[in-house]
């Protein structure tokens, strides 16, 4: 995971966010120059509509699972801070199942790398950055989170057979009225079980709902704001066939660009009591 350890760091805020105590406007956050490279994907990821659907507001404590390259970090951190809190959660580096040694090495160094990059980007002390592997979240954080966001990140733990364990751990982070927002690459509803391969990134919506229910959650609402009916979601190369990855380079590039990014479900869950 790059975790925004790129030139994008230089484009982020140069002054500490803590110096500004007014509630930020989401439109201003989305229009900020720090997102100059990210904004091209707004047409597919719909951050304003997604955060509204997840009922995310300034001042909340929001935990993001597997922030990856930091696309949503660059929205959530300035939107939530300074009155709220952004918490980054990553997979357990001891779980194994990494695609290669480089991926394992990134996972092992993730916590410190994320803290360092976040501190540099937002002008804060790295010691105060909240970033944890999912099995190492301190007790004082548990029960304090308003929202957990899992954006295009369920297929990895599912493929590694640790998804339900992770979801139970996330449930412990939530306040009693806390909720989980999910955006996930969506396989066709009528796809056979044998055709659904989490290694390809796609999951059936019914399967996501079922595993959430088995992990102690109840569906609140679903939305089609991140849907893409142009995506047949049956690519041999998985979701990475499409942009932004374009796995096959120039081969059929125009075709994939015309389709756009993947079809995605958008779901909101609360804790079942």
Automatic annotation (TrEMBL):
Keywords: Signal
InterPro entries according to UniProt: S-AdoMet-dep_MeTrfase_Alr7345, SAM-dependent_MTases_sf
Gene3D superfamilies: Vaccinia Virus protein VP39
Residues spanning the signal sequence: 1-18
Keyword Transit peptide: no
Protein name listed in UniProt: Methyltransferase
Protein's organism: Qipengyuania aquimaris
